[in-house]
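Cns1/TTC4 wheel domain-containing protein: structure, please.
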Amino acid sequence: ERADNYRDDGNDNFKKKRYRIAIDNYTEGITSNSPDVTLNAVLYCNRAAAQFHLGNYRSAFHDCIFARKFKPDHYKAIIRGVKCCLEMKKYDDCIKWCDAALMMEPDDKDVLDWRSKADKLQKTLEKEIRKQAAQERKEEAEEKKLIELIQSKGIKIAGLDKLRSETKLSPLILANVESHHPAGAKVKVDENNILHWPVLFFYPENSQTDFIEAFNETNTFADHIIAMFGIDSDPAAWDIDKKYKPESLEIYFENREEERLYRVDINSTLHDTMLHKT
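Here you go.
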């Protein structure tokens, strides 16, 4: 009788769209441990309905499962389970629950429509998964090819030794050949197997930067310095004293592992600098 009362209270609150209170009512009824299996199935099924209206589809589906444990042929629980699966995009499960309903009501048009919809969506989902997997394989192959090219040029990449025991490139390894600049530029290779690296120039005296998205590895630093600070270029807005001239600049690169700066010959290429023995 106690569980019956909680069910009735829950139904009353459900009709008034007070779904959270209804859930509490049904929960109290469930925890009353009634020996009536049909009543328990109804309590779980009704709580599933309230959860569904709140958008708690996973919890609602869980309650549908429990309702069927008490009464496997509880049709309302099966139908609500179907709707939950559709909302959660669990199309395989949706088809199974539709089949369970159709075993009882073979001509239920709504169920037939839901099953058809789930079947189409599942096929679309599987197609997208295959497409994504193919794209990931393609990208991984390109990344491995890029790593091999970088290695063939004598350039060392931090963390690459760990790769020898792995079948897939570590994101941490790939991060070492990518820019941390907001532009998100990455090292690229052209048709002549020339690498183009993202390079950041930092001017500590003025706390300013210049970002070169694609620095050709065969270019010298002088090429870029002259382009930025040569006589044919306007001074940077922050270079108030016009001190930044090619002949007065010194370039250093940072070895982060050693936390040390190394001076760079302005006439050296980017590739030569990357081969620097630290």
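Notes: The chain has ten helices and five strands.
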